[in-house]
Amino acid sequence: QVQLVESGGGLVQPGGSLRLSCAASGSFYAMGWYRQAPGKQRALVAQITSGGTTNYALSVKDRFTISRDNAKNTVYLQMNSLKPEDTAVYYCNYKRNPFAGDYWGQGTQVTVSS
């Protein structure tokens, strides 16, 4: 069983920044962040492999940056130029290998509002 510890959510004004962190209890093949707004499906925000390959949703590309620290089994999501439409619960996602099932964090609320 993998444990995921998320941190960094909160309330920020439009145009502001936040950084999310997710620490896993074991090494990973890929980790990332998904988000779910009220009434909407959970959707990919950004993902990174242990080798450094990244994938972003078009809506956050050029505003968000995902990075990783393999030694700490931790990924970070730097979110800049935040917009009200970025408001959602953000969930950390973990994949031990390409064929294994996903593990999910408990979710952290990000609210962008003036």
Multimeric status of the protein = single chain
Order of helices and strands, N to C?
Answer: EEEEEEEEEEE
Number of helices: 0
Low-confidence stretches: none
Residue share in β-strands = over 45%
The rounded distance between the terminal residues' Cα atoms is 40 Å
What proportion of the residues is helical, as a percent range? under 10%
Q: Biggest β-sheet, characterized?
A: 7 strands, mixed
Number of strands: 11
Structural class: mainly beta
Return Rg in Å.
13 Å
Tell the overall outline: globular
Mean pLDDT: 96
Explained architecture:
With 114 residues, this protein is mostly beta strands. It has strands spanning 4-7, 10-12, 18-24, 30-36, 43-49, 54-56, 64-69, 74-79, 88-95, 102-104, 108-112. Strands 2, 4, 5, 6, 9, 10 and 11 form a 7-stranded mixed β-sheet that branches. A 4-stranded antiparallel β-sheet has the order 1-3-8-7, with no helix packed on it. A hairpin with a 6-residue loop joins β9 and β10. It is globular, with a radius of gyration of 13 Å. The termini are far apart.
